[in-house]
Amino acid sequence: RLGAAVSCKYCVYIKCRTTVHVFIVQVSEKVGKVEFILKKKETLPWKKLGQPLQSHNSFVKPADRGLFFRKCKLISKSSVSHDTRLLCVMLPPGTHLQVPVGCHLYLKRTVTGTEIVKPYTPVMSSLVTEFKDPSHNDKTHIYFMIKIYPSGLFTPVLDCICVGEYISVSNPEGNFIKTQAEEVEDLFLLAAGTGFTPMVKLLNYVLTSSSILRTAKLMFFNKTEDDILWRSQLEELATNDSRFDVQFVLSEPNKAWTGKQGKISFPLVSQFVKRSKDDSKMLICICGPLPFMEQGIQILQDLGTSCEEIHCFRA
Questions:
Q1: What is the mean pLDDT of residues 171-196?
Q2: Cα–Cα distance measured from residue 73 to residue 61, given in angstroms and rounded to the nearest whole number
């Protein structure tokens, strides 16, 4: 069977005439083309592709689609920090899933007889070495950066999953419109803790695809230096790409810390959000705990930022 959701709206659902040995999906975002390549297991002529199934060749409204889960195998797990893990799951054979920039997935697992579902935004295997054209990214593996809360109900279970075990992963959800990033000249990112995860693919997209981007700046809020995720990679990226700049802000720094201190505030944000030109088109994205986002939005509004220039990543 061949099942795919293109742009999360158009459904192709076919039971192939004979066994398919290789199934490849190629996406050319810039020209709006999706190509399916099927290689037959046996060299027999096909009079037709196969039998169309229910909902084939139809548009499905996201609100009517609901969540579809697939069981994915955990193939690697590593520590990003003292309390954050990088998990890589592999999609079922023949399944290709392209997660749009700014979208999240839901993970599902049964815990003590209760089905728990939580949203997480996929990241990349590396912030630096994997930066490349998004259309060529691997669509059979998905990476999640997840903070483990020892007293939580769900994350300790995820932390205990062994390589080779399975977890259910949903189709993408989210309301971020990628054209917002395509048209921006100045991009400002405000992130706290694992609110950094939506920024990873967004940074990759604008730095590799935009021809008009002048600046991309990240202000990353954490408690201590040990909490900063992918610090060395962020610093390397800033060294390698003059358009990118990162500022770390700590609320509980040690005495040796010489960087910015405190929590999100009007003085910090007002110094951070500065257009490269008076009339440049900018976008400010924010993600983190709810109080962080609420305070950040209020500060941006006090600065006179329009609603069209602000995007909050919410699950």
A1: 94
A2: 29
